[in-house]
Amino acid sequence: MSGFASTRTGPASGGGLRGAVRAEWSKAWTVRSTWWCLLAGGVLMGLGAVQFSIFTTNANGNDDPADDKGVVEVGLIPMAALDLVQYALIGLAMLLITAEYAGGVIRTTLQWVPRRGVMLLAKTGVAAAAGGAAGVVLAVLGTAVAVPMLGRWGRFEMAGWLGDILAVGCYMALISVFALGLGAALRSGVGTLIAVFLLLAVLPAVLQASDVTVLERVADYLPGVAGASFMRGESEAYPSWAGLPILACWAAAAVGAGYAVLRRRDA
Length: 267
Hints:
Blueprint: H1 16-29, H2 32-61, E1 72-73, H3 76-103, H4 106-112, H5 116-150, E2 154-155, H6 158-186, H7 189-208, H8 213-220, H9 223-232, H10 243-264
Parallel strand pairs: 1-2
Helix pairs in contact: 1-5, 2-3, 2-5, 3-5, 3-6, 3-7, 5-6, 5-10, 6-7, 6-9, 6-10, 7-8, 9-10
């Protein structure tokens, strides 16, 4: 996590947003923490795909017809594993800014790119690109693991599978932006990770278990539930496609909050 503090990248002066993006992209891929996050994501995706594939085949092969999954789309397996895998990529995104605050490098970054909005926009673009691309690659990995394990219980249709893979990429791009924005607002790696975990996992589960209709509807519009609805159609409150703009609103709000803090407080 301290890798960002030791990076030396030339100033983006004269390059505007384009130069700032190049500088941030270079910093992101020249530190060990990025590669550790990607490795963790790959391991978690592989293990998750194995787990959900075994669960599906076992459920279909036991004597209880009530838990039969039937033939499933192979793209659903990496989507299921994403509930845990996403935290590795969230860690990557938030470290783009929280590690700089931890190491004091944010002051140097703002000397190179004195316009704070440009600096944050550059980091946002890098987080979206890295998170989206990594999400697609990891989903392909999860599919490669799931196909031979599912056997006759897996169905592969290219058009549907490509849609599933792209949905994962879109989700991870927006969740990465969401994490970056919270990191800019909170300026703490631990605080950001806790906040993301609460909003994606804990709070929806609590509200959905309340048996209070209003609270259950609130849960439907939280970022994790909206993302799951977009990918897997898990919400009855709105069409699955509507989950994407809801998640985009959360990502934009987080970046807006981060920008407000950047403007008000010294680095």
